[in-house]
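Data deposition worksheet. Section B asks for the primary sequence of the deposited chain exactly as it was used as input, without tags or linkers unless they were present during the calculation. Section C holds the resulting structure in token form. Section D is free text for depositor observations; keep each observation to a single sentence. Incomplete worksheets are returned to the depositor.
Section A, Depositor: J.P.
Section B:
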Amino acid sequence: MPNETMQCILEKYPWIKEENQKLIISPDSDGFLSALLLMNYFNAEVVGYYDGKVMLCDKNIDPRDCTFVDLDIFCQDIRSVGHHMVCFNSHRKPKNWNNYDNCIQLNNLRDFDCQHNFQRKYPFGTVHFLLSLLDTVKPIKLTSEAIVPLLFCDGVCNNLFGYPENCLEWLEWLGANSRDSLLYDVFYKEMPFSTVMLQMNEFFKARDVYNSKCYYDYDEKRIVTKSRSRSGHHMIISLSDGTPANIIDNDDGTYNIFDQEKERTLGFIDFMANLVGWRSMSHKWNFSNMTLYKFKKESMSVNSSTHLNLKNYTAMVESNCFSMAITAGSTIEYTRDVEGHFRT
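Section C:
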């Protein structure tokens, strides 16, 4: 039987199933897998990346004409799909909350907020949602080995045992508990726990082959040797302070991603594509002749000068907020569009 929840979402956001979409993605395993899905079944291509601090996009493409994947963008002009907790109190939403009207925001779909439902927030990756949603549009195939990257993505394997009640509730919402679901074999297939552990261990070792060994210093214009453990599953485009990294200025208004970072990233993407049984299609991943957009990332928490409360949250959202994520009950990380690239 068709999943009525997924059908309602498709009716409200029909653009998610369009062919030939231009994607801007989060530069990590969830963004990569989600993009691979849309590439293999809907002929999409990746034209840019956004990590909450910097954005890169093909110089010939307006980001407003793209779909942002694994990213909750607070801008009516932009189509996006993401799963972070973003609402502080669903009964007292900011006056510009309609900026999410073009965002498939999973917690917002269930009217979940930080004050009342934080422990019930979505515990999986964007790719798990897209698999459930888009398999109702056209049949999607996964190999038996796909279980490993899908359990790794966004720490799902940790959430399953840390928050089992919440995970089971969301699996039912996704329709994954139905034998007709593409995700049924991922989450309900009988398999010894030791087998899963061994497979995950092999995945971690393979992931670490792609760990970052160096980065290109944007300001100093030089290569810096620095090994980062457990970094093989994401592409680094900025440092913790927001400074661009692995981005080369072509001195003509365009930017390229550092070749070594590009090759490292494509290697991991190809590795995951082989596991799930899809084509990696390296020609559909853009890494050159891009426009660079800089943002300002900040946070509110009990340890910062500005605490997370309704008044401060509302003021932040109603100013120049571009994206946000409530990462703990008393902490929010948010990005401000201080340069006014996408203000509405």
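Section D:
The two ends are 41 Å apart (CA to CA).
Residues 11-209+293-336 form one domain.
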